[in-house]
Specification:
The chain is α+β, with helices and mostly antiparallel strands. It has three domains: 216 residues, no CATH class; 81 residues, Signal transduction histidine kinase, dimerisation/phosphotransfer (DHp) domain (Helix Hairpins); 138 residues, Histidine kinase-like ATPase, C-terminal domain (Heat Shock Protein 90, 2-Layer Sandwich), CATH 3.30.565.10. 48% of the residues lie in helices and 19% in strands. The chain has a six-stranded antiparallel β-sheet. A hairpin with a 5-residue loop joins strand 12 and strand 13.
Length: 474
């Protein structure tokens, strides 16, 4: 059961059903209250009409003993100012709700010659009426009455009247509430039966709609589970043709899988290439040590030191690449690129530095120095005679350009040279050309510093490597 309600479809169905249920209850309650109010108002109007008819007869001179109250099945009471019942419907057997429970008329003790004793002509409601005048009706409330053996609920209205003889009377008349009760009960019955059926329909439709809407998501989940089980990152999840959020989710998932596949493939290639690059100096160093163990006089100490240095440099390159791949953030130190370029060019034959006196950026001095050193190593390796380093400002950017007068880089290879372990000259030895990590490291460091590293044609015909970094922020 918990798994059922843990599903999106179940939660969506439950939420939709609850919302509709609350709306139906609120609307149903409003309808019932409005219906009951209208029917009660209609009953009050009918009772007022009956009371006014009797009060009109009394106002025009008909004595209450001569009233005809038998033509209507509605209960009517006529009460004098002393509270004595002086007239009532003939078939009235019992009544509650008017304040006068008597059903049998009694002789009135009030005067009928216009002298109203100490009451000064005021009726029970406090209104001062003149002879033959009818007062404002007032709703007494709800009660019950038994008329000719039938007991029903009624709404009672009182209408004061003063006869021409000076008698102050109050007419109570009731209208039955059976129509109101019947209509309200019928509406309530319809709601009690219809609302659950409607909620069941809403839940069923929501269940079907959400199942149809989430079917592609289930397909994506199954395919992702299969990819996880098989570890085949070349597979892709199905993309529905609905062009909605689910389709965009599938597209994004496929893009993520493609990036993950590329990253894993790059990592595998990196490990394979690193193993291959490490094998040569280690094998060479081992051979020299084995020869030296057997024949100490044949030890090539310079070669052993050179192989050890190569191993040290390669290990340092691999460690730096691993740190860059791990997302290590560069330091936020203040670095003068012009001074750094002069420092990197110091002691190098044929390398000249020119440009602005000071060009500052924020970053890691060690990593940026490594970039300049790698670019100079690469330029000297391919230059015929000269390498020129230019440091300048370009708007808000700081630019370092390293140009050589060599053969340049073919346009088709200008991005490939920044890949790891790539050498354009297949015949070049590792001793002369390195492991093919220098430009890859330079590009990665530039990107980590928010900049770019690109290659173009140099004015002298060789290669021009341009390092562009954000200028120092104020």
């Amino acid at each position: 059961m918990s798994r059922l309600f843990a599903s999106v479809r179940a939660r969506a169905t439950l939420a939709a059903t609850l919302v509709v249920a609350v709306a139906l209850v609120a609307a149903g309650s409003a309808v019932l209250l409005s219906l009951r109010s209208n029917l009660l108002g209609e009953a009050g109007t009918q009772a007022e009409r009956s009371a006014r008819d009797v009060a009109t007869s009394l106002a025009v001179g008909t004595r209450y003993t001569e009233l005809n109250l038998d033509d209507d099945d509605r209960p009517v009471q006529v009460v004098d100012e002393a509270g004595t019942l002086v007239a009532a419907s003939e078939d009235l057997e019992r009544i509650t709700g008017t304040g006068v429970d008597a059903v049998t008329p009694q002789p009135s003790a009030s005067p009928s010659d216009g002298d109203d004793g100490d009451d000064d002509g005021d009726d029970d409601s406090g209104e001062s009426l003149e002879a033959g005048e009818i007062g404002e009706p007032a709703t007494v409330g709800d009660g019950t009455a038994t008329v000719d053996g039938d007991t029903e609920d009624y709404r009672f209205v009182a209408v004061p009247v003063e006869t021409r003889g000076g008698d102050q009377l109050t007419v109570y008349a009731g209208a039955p509430l059976s129509a109101e009760h019947g209509a309200v009960n019928t509406a309530l019955t319809v709601m009690l039966i219809g609302f659950p059926l409607l909620l069941a329909v809403v839940a069923w439709v929501t269940w079907l709609v959400t199942r149809r809407a989430l079917r592609p998501v289930e397909g994506i989940r199954r395919e992702m589970a299969a990819i996880t089980a098989s570890e085949d990152l070349a597979r892709r999840v199905p993309v529905p043709g609905t062009h909605d959020e689910v389709a965009r989710l599938a597209t994004t998932t496929n893009q993520t899988l493609a990036a993950l596949e590329s990253s894993v493939e790059r990592q595998r290639r990196f490990v394979a290439d690193a193993s291959h690059e490490l094998r040569s100096p280690i094998a060479s160093l081992r051979t020299q040590l084995e020869v030296a163990a057997a024949h100490p006089e044949l030890l090539d100490l310079d070669g052993a030191v050179e192989d050890t240095v190569r191993l040290q440099r390669l290990a340092a390159d691999l460690l730096l690449l691993a740190r860059l791949d791990a997302g290590e953030r560069p330091a936020d130190a203040r670095v003068d690129l012009a001074a750094l370029a002069r420092e990197a060019a110091g002691g190098r034959t044929g390398v000249s530095v020119r440009g602005d006196a000071a060009v500052h950026v924020a970053g890691s001095r060690g990593q940026l120095g490594r970039v300049l050193a790698n670019l100079l190593d690469n330029a000297q390796r391919h230059a015929r005679s000269a390498v020129e380093v230019t440091v300048r400002r370009d708007g808000e950017a700081a630019v370092v350009a390293v140009a050589d007068d060599g053969e340049g880089v073919p346009a088709a290879d200008r991005e490939r040279i920044f890949e790891r372990f790539v050498r354009l000259d297949a015949a070049r030895s590792r001793d002369d050309g390195g492991a093919g990590l220098g430009l890859a490291i330079a590009r990665d460091v530039a990107v980590r510093h928010g900049g770019t590293l690109t290659v173009h044609d140099a004015p002298a015909g060789g290669a021009l490597f341009e390092l562009r970094l954000p200028g120092e922020r104020a």
